[in-house]
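Minutes, project check-in
Item: structure for the 252-residue chain
Input as provided by the requester:
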Amino acid sequence: QPNSTLSTTMFLDFACQIREEGALEVLCAALAKLLMDSEKPEYQTFPSELISRSWAKVSNIKNIDTDMCISTLTRLLDHCLSMAPTNLKLIALQAAARLSVGNDEGTIRLLLSAGALITDGFSNVAMLERWLDSSYYNLVKACMNVGAHIEVSMLCCLKSPPEYGTSFQALKRMTQYDHLHLYYPLFWDVNLLECAISQHHKKEEKILRDFVIGLMQRPENNENNNPDLVTRTQNSKKCAFLRTMYHKFACQ
């Protein structure tokens, strides 16, 4: 309720004494459900993994101080993740909570730091897919919000099947100052390279166009390569991309 600062402090003091992960998940889910029931649009994209939509809607929801509720939720989630740093459901909820208050860079740092931990430095491809399933939407949205166009373009091609529409639109918005020389050699999708060549040609950026053409001609990008080799090369570049992104955003 509004003006319940003491009650909020007491609640957090109580919650931080809890060590059982399942109980903490229920507390976080209950706070998230309160925010969703407020019907404010910024809270409607909270992940559903923790939140039972069969729970009854809270009465007198208009009396809930949503600012205090989201602050309490993010602080509680910080505590939860200090105890369970690889809990993908809690990570996804904290990312959505940070996005809801406009903390885009904090969302990116959270998701990439968690991804590095869960995937052993973005080297475990199997765990990479699990992490991406829970983190993709929030990571792409946060990158869009901060204007990280080339990162959005590459993230969209991590999906299966790739989201080429969003990916190509992001490439069209990139500039020559978007760390292109850092990321272009890591492009694993020939369609992206072709789109980049087209964009630089239209913008009369001859040096960048010729640079990407040179990448296209590398043996590793030959579409007639052995399928196993193609898969290994693509996985290697995907992991290298995420490590590069991690160092750019999370190691500042």
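Outcome recorded: The radius of gyration is 21 Å.
No further action items on this chain.
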